[in-house]
User: What shape does this take?
Amino acid sequence: MKAIFFGIFILAFTFSTQMVKAQQGGNGETKPKVVVGIVVENMRPDYVQRFWNKFQDGGFKKLYSQGAVCTNVKLTLHSQNYASGTATLFTGVHPSIHGIVNNTWYDRLKKKEVECTEDDYYITVGADTEEGNASPVQLLSNTITNNLKILTQGKSKIFSAAINRESAIFSAGHAADGAYWFDVVSGRMISSSFYVSTFPDWVRLFNSENYAARYSYRNWVTLLPEVEYTEALRDDYLLESGYFGEFNTYPHTISKYLKRTENFKPFKTTPSANLMIKDFALQLMDNENIGQDDVTDFVSVVFSSMDYENGSFGPASLEMMDSYLYLDQYLAEFISGVEERYGKDNVLFFLTANTSAAYPVEYLKNEFHMPVDNFNVERAIALLTLFLNNTYGDANWIEHYTDLQVYLDHDLIKQKGLDLNEIRNAASNFINQFEGVQLAMPSQQLEQGSSANGLLEPLYTSYYKNRSGDFLYLLKEGWQPSYKFKKVNYSDQSHIPLVFYGANIRPQVIKEKYHAVDLVPTLSELLNIQAPDKCQGQIIKELLNVEE
Assistant: This one.
């Protein structure tokens, strides 16, 4: 009898121990009820240091004073953009594996440029537009949000809210309960039928508030008196192009800009858009019953830094500083609201960025005499076309080109009986001769794979066969691509912020070098779940509070 009783006791003890471990994170601490990912598009890490004295206590200062701050984190991509950046952050792998090489790429089968989230199999939910005809099917890797959903047998609730579609979809992943973004046509928060079959009443009610219309008809004025913006350029700085190349001073009459675009696109560039996302995210948490049980839920909230007008004003502008002072206020309200709902010890926050911002070329040239300039893409392609015609005969050798890569016409080359790799090499070598080009590499060389670091790393980590071009090139530091009529939101900056705050996080400064792909394995360890199988990152060990 004693032996039987002892055996039952051991089984009960083992079972109870396993149950406790299942509710604990990687440190043996209790797992958070909610993970809140705060992502800011185009955020430079030095913004926080520069604007620190103007921030209030509850926003950026709270995260950076009470959180674990990683000061040396890089997002290494060939093309810095919202889609590739978000996909890399949430999968823990580079574009060479997850496949999102840019916001758009050229599809050789369809003979056209395709957008990375566009999917006509699904329809818009929440508005009578096509802005919700989208899905994450082009994302070829598992996300941490997928993993959390799978490993909790579907019990974890996964949601995202963002201004831009790519950021919302790739932070939510394939298995999410909902992904919402701003529709510039209708001015509403919408989703796709991939995620939502019936549009929630609470979102319909939120849209009835008409944020975009209401706030667009209020002038954008500075949060503080302009004389206090000593960390920014003067408002009428001559080299600041501004909206439509002419409106660069306060007050900004957004309603006038809306008439120019004939949609709500300019609203996305204002602090009011971040206010809308903050309010939407808090209502999402209430209406979707986030954090109401012992299973960890995950909500991603993506804010913006002036969106597509980022380069029209630049990191040193008064508008950029004002945007961050407003965002700081909204972050304080958001963090406070979340902690009031769940308690600080029950929420794990992280703050990061899916892109960083570069200074405008004219600002660097005129103010600091930097050896930088604009790289005229159209002129370079015209000269490359002339070179190929002189070498191989008159024909349309170039099928498509983007900022940093070129697609050759494979069918034409095969028809002419020419060697594809030979033409790739010749074209790549020709582009290499331009003053603003740092390096160009043909795709057959990139397909061989490499663990190269430094200059070559973004080429190898970003190349994906059948989506990338026949050769890729990098511009020299500070140079930017330009077109005659096309506007480019370009950055060559790779440093991004990364801060952890809340459940089981002790305040510290981590100066070791890490990468964007390290976010996923670190979060996985903190949540005591398996990282996605192909994850390329490493755990940020300083966060685990483990004695070495």
About this structure: The first strand starts at residue 34 and ends at 40. The mean pLDDT is 93. The CA atoms of residues 42 and 218 lie 25 Å apart.
